[in-house]
Amino acid sequence: MIVWIDPIRIRLRKKTIFLDRDGVINEDREYYVKRPDEFVLYPEAATALRLFLQLGFQLIIISNQSGLGRGIISWDNFQKIHNIMIKRLSFYGCPPAAVFYCPHRPEDNCFCRKPRPGMLVEAISNFDIPSLECFFIGDRKTDMEAATQAGCRGIRIVRKGRRTPKNRFEVQNLLEAVSLITKFRLQGD
Ligand SMILES: [Mg+2]
Ligand SMILES: [Zn+2]
């Protein structure tokens, strides 16, 4: 597990929006986000993340990057992509408090690779995060499985045109996730 923490922003016992990276914050690629020029933020991402901060959440990114373990993404490019993400999100006023990456391949059988909840569990226990008040926003079924196992609510992003959202925990982009979470708060649910 590779853990990056911003000591200025991380807070103990704070409600948190956990976010998958590729396919949620930035466009996913057919064959991994391998180079800095392949890191493209979705147009609505920064606005949505700023709204989460205004709602009193901190942001923690939880990302499988098996391209590292497979030797498809170089460590140098991995680091550059990470730096670009932090720089852009900071520029737009929505920097994450921490980022967790799993660099392993499925056959490594680690505890951190989603659908296993290792990265979420580690973040929740290290920072004493109230998991019941948290959400994990991802775009895959494996993200939802990790959320359930870690005891927080999963919200799945199903991009327009892929298929129609099936249930009330599926939305089409991060801004719709903001509305959904706002509704939860109003209902005190
Ligand atoms: Mg994803
Ligand atoms: Zn792992």
TrEMBL record:
Its EC number is 3.1.3.-. GO terms for molecular function: metal ion binding; phosphatase activity. Its cofactor is Zn(2+); Mg(2+). The active site is at D20, D22. GO terms for biological process: carbohydrate metabolic process. Gene3D superfamilies: HAD superfamily/HAD-like (3.40.50.1000). GO terms for cellular component: cytoplasm. Pfam families: Hydrolase_like. It is found in: Cytoplasm. The record marks S63, K114 as: Stabilizes the phosphoryl group. Zn(2+) binds at C102, H104, C110, C112. Keywords: Carbohydrate metabolism, Cytoplasm, Hydrolase, Magnesium, Metal-binding, Zinc. The record marks R113 as: Contributes to substrate recognition. Mg(2+) binds at D20, D22, D139. Belongs to the gmhB family. PANTHER family: D-GLYCERO-BETA-D-MANNO-HEPTOSE-1,7-BISPHOSPHATE 7-PHOSPHATASE. This is D,D-heptose 1,7-bisphosphate phosphatase. The lineage of its organism: Bacteria, Pseudomonadati, Thermodesulfobacteriota, Syntrophobacteria, Syntrophobacterales.
